[in-house]
């Protein structure tokens, strides 16, 4: 299995992906490796070549991406997996799925990270990295709605970059509606530049806390294994 993450210029981001790989490996009989789309090595082609040279003829690639409509899923992913030798790995759906419907395990993982803040809050801003794609925006808005329903609290979508509203703008909207203690749920898998900017912007906006990236949450491990089953991957 190859877990394919986005990658980051922030060194600590790799630790989140490695932690998820270790957690998945404890429930998967086959070999688990990690590769990245950008910024970090190994890249996908290099990792696939290494696995092929080691005698692994069947490799399942799990894209660690939350938005099926975003540029990385639609453009970067196929490009990264194109192989001049014609080798075609088995590629699972991205973690966020392909239907646009929020996965209950992602909702549960977001709720888990919010609970770890150990603070009281009466509203939530769900902050994703951002995308210019209208479909990706709709996916984040749907997840915010699902999280709010699960918590029984108002929840607004916001974006760390590219799109609006910003975390501060979403928090202000909630305050105008009567919220007083707003928490931020980070809709990302690992720390990185945009996560750090989310923390800074949210802190400046006066929120009571910003949750950690989803990382190796048990619900994500379950979701990775489910994506493998959906694609028909079997450890050998």
What does the secondary structure layout of this molecule look like, with pairings?
Layout: E1 2-5, H1 13-25, E2 33-36, H2 44-53, E3 60-63, H3 71-81, E4 90-91, H4 104-115, E5 123-128, H5 134-151, E6 155-159, H6 167-176, E7 182-186, H7 193-204, E8 209-210, H8 218-231
Parallel strand pairs: 1-2, 1-3, 3-4, 5-6, 5-7, 7-8
Return Rg in Å: 18 Å
Distance between the termini: 11 Å
Poorly predicted runs of 5 or more residues:
none
In total, how many beta strands? 8
- Classify the oligomer: single chain
Structural class given helices, strands, pairing? alpha/beta
Q: How many domains comprise the coordinates?
A: 2
At the fold tier of CATH, the topology name of the largest domain is: Rossmann fold
| SSE pattern, N- to C-terminal | EHEHEHEHEHEHEHEH
CATH class of the largest domain: Alpha Beta
Biggest sheet: strand arrangement: 2-1-3-4
Major sheet size, sense and barrel closure:
4 strands, parallel
Shape: elongated
**Count the helices. How many?**
8
What is the helical fraction, as a range of percent?
A: 40-55%
**Average of the residue pLDDT scores:** 88
CATH architecture of the largest domain: 3-Layer(aba) Sandwich
